[in-house]
Structure prediction request, 458 residues.
Amino acid sequence: MKLATTLRFYCALWLGKSILLFSRLAGKPGTTLPGAVALKLYPELLARLAGGLPHGAIVVTGTNGKTTTSNLLAEVLQHAGMMLTFNRAGANLVTGITSAFLAASRWDGRNPSQLALLEVDEAAMAKVVPSVKPHTLVITNFFRDQLDRYGELDKTVALVKDTINTYLPHAKLILNADDPLAAQIGANREGVLYYGVAPTDYDITGNSQAREAKFCSFCGHAYDYELYHYGQLGIYTCPGCGFQRPVPDVLADKVQIRGTVGVSFSLGGTAINLQHQGFYSVYNALAAAAAALGMGIGIEHIKAALDGFIPQAGRMEQFLFGAARVTLSLVKNPTGFNEVIRAMVHGEKPLGLMIAINDNAADGRDISWLWDVDFETLADKAEFVICSGSRAEDLAVRLKYAGMETEKLYVVKDLAQALSQLGAKLDAGMSGYVLPTYTALFPTRQLMNAARSKAYAS
Prediction:
């Protein structure tokens, strides 16, 4: 039996690595197929490949920001000299994570990495965690996202919490103190490190936005908020049972949003200057910094890595497109979209936008979340909006109801044609933004890169 198991392991390993090799030779990323095929042959493959790393594994999960947080943390760890197994491409289901281990492992199954850093989809936690057994879990936040896939938010939080209680009773938790849905997971538990943001000049005291977590997870009483940073993230207290925002162990203060230049904040007296736009970028960097500090990594490594990090594909990525600078950013749920809008309107230049909304399975079939996005803020700031993607007409209707003048709206469902029209309409005095949902992101980015390459060639 032991010999048969060993043979299956090596057959799965070699088959998976061969598929990965041929995928890359064919110009494909090979982020999920190698793992999917190998797991069919040997379902315990991930557990075998994940075992034995000298510094174990760290998992990052949550609704928004987990890809950027993972990439920032990887930058810090590598700056500190660690060799990682890392699903950098963001394939965060069990197949993608297995593919990352296949890529990192040698043909004899040995892995030269010291540590695994894994971005994990919330819905995949129960499948991934038992195999990789992380010693540290970072949770960014919880927001409504793809209701047709995840169900209500309470279900997602319960799934993550049950996974922690079942498989990670002694793991270190790195939790967002400002999100009551994340913070409540650490109640009555040791080994929790909380991160949060001090009051800023950009906070909101009213409750005009659509927000999650209006009611306490323990007693059901409505929270009292001193302020909101964004969404339900802020400083809160439950007057019913006394649960309140934990005092952050890692605190960002002196937050400054500098338009297209980026954002900055102070971390224990050390100035951090990010090349990222948007308030939410502070939380991504803060989560990565908290995880690194929890591992004993010095602030000098954290500052150098965060200051020098270039935003990855589709996360406030910068392009020179025609005569104007254009920012490409993924949008996938109301809270994330609202923060992108807030970053856009902080600039002084008028805006030219292309928004591509798809409703494929990976995007979520239900696009009713568009009605919770604060498009009204854009009505006066945007010079024009090109509506693209499979649900372009639905987006145009939503923008019309938001107060956008119809002569500013253009419906161009084809991505290439929409980008061409964007380039023709933008001028050097405008800020351009391209905002696609998930399945529109990489085709759009490919077209923008092709246009940039063509411009360089000419």
